Every structure is written in C-alpha cells, then in structure tokens.
Amino acid sequence: MDSVENAWNKYDESQVEKIMEYNEGYKNYISVCKTERECVRETIRQAEEKGYRDLKKVIEAKESLKAGDKVYYNNMDKALALFVVGEQPLEKGMKILGAHIDSPRIDLKQNPLYEDTEQVLLDTHYYGGIKKYQWVALPLALHGVVVKKDGTKVEIVIGEEEGDPVVGISDLLVHLSREQMEKKASKVIEGEDLNILIGSIPLKDEKKDAVKANIKKLLKEKYGIEEEDFISAEIEAVPAGKARDFGIDKSMVMGYGHDDRVCAYTSYTAMFEIENPDRTCVCLLVDKEEIGSTGATGMESKFFENAVAELMDRLGDYSELKLRRALQNSQMLSSDVSAAFDPNYPSVNEKKNAAYFGKGITFNKFTGSRGKSGSNDANPEYIARLRAAMEKHNVSFQTAELGKVDVGGGGTIAKFMASYNMEVIDCGVPVLNMHAPWEIASKIDIYETMLGYIAFLKEL
Ligand code: MN
Ligand code: MN
Q1: Burial class (CB in 10 A: 0-12, 13-18, 19+), 444
Q2: Domains defined for the chain, CATH in brackets
Q3: How many Å lie between the centroid of ligand 2 and the Cα of residue 409?
C-alpha cells in the first residue's frame, strides 16, 4: 500500500540511533527470555526497577493503594499483569495492552528419557503450530524447571552460554532421502519423530542402557535430579543462541519468539513511560495463546478479572457491579504479530490489505478464517479514536488482515477480553517466518509499535 510512507523516512540520523538502541534492549530481552517463565521473571525485574510493587504483598500487608501507584500481579510465574493506577475510579474503565509470552517450541514428554542404539534421546510433544521440518538439524537449547517432590525447583538452561553444549533433532541425509522427499511437507518429519539427541558416552561397567546411565549420572551431579523428576518438570526445547541484527543495513532483527514477545516488550516498555494517568493503564502478558488461550495462565482464565477485583479492593472501591463496569468500560489493544508481506510468497496476500515491513504498527479490524469465523471484529467507532490517537502522536500505522480470504487464518486473545463487552482490536508487529525457529521483524515497526502503545495509553 503506497499511501503509508515508509517510517524510516521520518527520522534523521540521531533519531535512527535511538531506534537502534531501543532494539538492542529488545534483542537482549528475547535472547534472555525464551519461555513464559523467563519472560515473567525478567519483566518483573525491570518493573520493580521502575517502582512497581507486588500486588499480592500489598494485599497481604493490607496496605491501601492510590492514584499513581504501580503494581504487578504474577499468575503462577507464567502470566503477568502490570497496573498504573489512574486518577479516575476503576469503574470508568482501563486502557489495556495485552500480548502473549508463550511461543511455539518443542516440549519434553513426562517420561522422555530413553536409549536407542547407544544414543540417548528425549521424547517430545511440540507446542503450538509448527512446520516440523523447520525444527530439525539446528542447535536447540533446553530451558525450564524441574520441581522435585519436596517442592524445590531446579532451573535449567542448557545451550545458551558460550561453551555450553547444544542439543537437537537429526534429519535424514539427502543421499538416503528418496522416499522422504516424495512425502507431503506435513509428513516429511512426523511429530513422534521429533526426538532430541542428548548423549552417546556409555557409563563404564554398566551392562544395560549404559549411555542412559551416564546421562542420569550427569543429571544427578549437575542438577540433583532423578529420572522420575521429569514427571513434574516443564522443559522446553527452543532454538539456541541470541537474537541478531538481520540485513546488511541492520534494519531487522532475527530472533526466536517474536511471536509474541515483540508485542510483550513493546507493551511493557510503553507502560514504563506512563506516570499518573487519568484512567488506570494495564499491561497484560499471558501464556497459552498458541494452544488456544486455555488453562489457568491463558487468557481464558479468570486471573485478570480477579486481579482487577483485588486492585479495586485495595483502592477501597470494590463491588461486583463496579468490577463489571471496570471491565466493560475498558479499551484494549490485543497485540499479536501480523504476517508481513513476503515477496517470495506474494500469492497468499491481497496487496491492499497486507502488512508491510517499514510501515509501522499494524491494526487488524478482524482476524479469523473462512468468513471471519472466530474473530473479534473491532467497531469502527473505536478504530476512529485509535486513528486520531496515532495521528496526533505521528505514529506510522497500517491496516491488514491475515492473508487472502480463505487462504488460512488464526485467532488471538482478543475475543476473550471482548467477552467482557469492552472495545478490543487486534494489532501488532509484522513478522516474516512466523512460527519458524528464527523469525524476522523490522526495527522501525518495533519502534513505531511502542510509540503507538504510548499514544494509546495517553489518548484513549
Ligand atoms: Mn501470536
Ligand atoms: Mn503464533
């Protein structure tokens, strides 16, 4: 779409430097945070530096809160809500930025460890929508927690430090692949074959499964865990290594988990710019979007509603009716990545309604598939207010839908929040290679998205 100018053109050299610097922060965030737990922990660390306090501790201490206060609500270390309390009563509604912090990956099964022909492997069940053939023959890292019977939690990160070993899933050599190459892409690598190779040295004097015995010994020595502790573990195999500049001009970022940590980072850093707002501002980072927003830590959960109730109680202003009004009178940007137009695959998009690199934050009036099915279809009255806010703050924005009609589709957290009868629209950052181990986003779009969130928090 030519009517939206390329956002890089708005900036002079020193401003471009600022944009690059902002993206250094982002690259670091997604390099360090590769699981929902790591995202929650790092976001809390940064929020505390900015003066946010733990709402649960405020509740415990029976402290009261007032306008201007900043608090966070941690849900099971996998979802998080940040609040800056506004001047106006909560029942006037909130301004909510929401994004998800889970990303497609390969999870270990509960009983993962086995030896086959003197190799030790881990059995897995992938998480979210992946093209399985993209996840073989590349270095993977293991991130997660093992919780022992006595409740002690062992944090595991293997494959990220210089000198750390990596693990991974093998693929068949091309020389013997005649049959494999005839298969459909969905069958080339099957889910049950995503087995992660982790070792091959046998334990001396061990007769049966000697390599596995050696790995068990290592796990015991290094982490103090037994094989049966995998039963109460959550370990995720993710691409190993840091996010990097992409393109000779360094205009893009290649990293794991842009979907949707790019919207999480831009959301919470925008929140950090807000002091003493008129109405309460919220940044909501949730889990489980990639598998349908289910579970206690997904958007379907009541945790956000409960957190708002607790907040109102601390403000001395809770009633069931006021809580309902607070939710209903809210506006939300449900942020998730968009499919960036890819010149290699132009046929899946309709050019006037596609998202492009360099054109800024993308608004999706609707998502869904087959006749908008499953979509939150934002109201034009609301979109008009957003247009005005973006223009006032000189934010580059574009509008798009996910591909051509009937080509595919997808859902987001929007519909769950819309069920409170609040105004919600999908928006976010365009991404190439979405759901691949290494995704690509444009630095200027990341920056404009953060500016767009600030405009939303200030103007709505
Ligand atoms: Mn997403
Ligand atoms: Mn996704």
Answers
A1: buried
A2: 7-103+256-459 (3.40.630.10), 105-239 (2.30.250.10)
A3: 11
